[in-house]
Structures are given as structure tokens and as C-alpha cells.
């Protein structure tokens, strides 16, 4: 199951929003984080920890939470490339999506490495 954000691509059938001159900061930061590694963006692991708790403040920043019955057991991040379909392509999709790689391996809320990392930043 995938979280969907308010402005970044996700569901290939969902129309991209028009948000100019504003942008959703979380979506924007995730876009920049994907240009590096999660080790360069410690806030991202804090976000994952909050999502593993179904934190209501964090969930307000997200367009769709697929885990309404309770928090997920694990969260991983996959890296995708999105492109608009060619105008000649006969499709109703807004995006073509191609998986590039795994960005962050699956993490559990009790993962010792995650907990140590969060403790070092004072987030636990």
C-alpha cells in the first residue's frame, strides 16, 4: 500500500494539482531528498517513525493514508521516475512510472537501528 502526497506524483491516474505560486513543503522536501540518500536527510527517518505510529499531525500533511485500521507494521521507500506520457500515446494515465531502486529498506517501529538513530537526534 502506498501513501499519497498532496502534490507529488503517485497514482498514475491522478491529475497533477495546480498549486502555483505555492507548494506543499513536505512534498517538495521529499522530492529533494530523492536526489540524495536518506542518510543525508535525517528528518525523513523521523517522518517514517511518525508514520509507523499513524501520527495524526503528520497524516494531515498527506493526501491519502491507506492504513486507516492502524499503523503499518513496516515502511519502505521506493524510488520511481515519473514522466508524462507522449501526446501520441493512447492512454488515460497522467503519468508513466518506472521503478528505479529501493531508497530505504523496510523499517519496523522497534527496529534497533532506527531507534538508536532517533535517540541520537533527540527524537525518541
Instruction: Tell me the number of strands.
Output: 4
Taken as a percent bin, the fraction of beta residues is 15-25%
Low-pLDDT stretches are none
Radius of gyration: 16 Å
Mean of residue pLDDT? Answer: 93
Classification by helices and strands: alpha+beta
Helix content: 25-40%
Q: Based on Cα principal axes, name the global outline.
A: elongated
Head-to-tail CA distance between termini? 26 Å
- The string of secondary-structure elements, in order, is EHHHEEEH
Oligomeric state of the chains in view: single chain
Strands of the widest sheet, in order across it, are 1-2
Provide a short characterization of the protein structure:
With 124 residues, this protein is an alpha+beta fold.
Structural features, described:
There is one protein chain. The chain has 124 residues and is of the alpha+beta class. The protein is 27% helix and 23% strand. It is built from four helices and four strands, in the order E-H-H-H-E-E-E-H. It has helices spanning 25-33, 42-52, 56-59, 112-120; strands at residues 4-5, 62-64, 74-83, 96-108. The strands form two sheets. The chain has a two-stranded antiparallel ribbon. The protein is elongated and about 50 Å long. The model has no long low-confidence stretch (mean pLDDT 93).
Descriptive terms for the model:
single chain, 124 residues, alpha+beta, two-stranded antiparallel ribbon, 4 helices, 4 strands, 23% strand, elongated
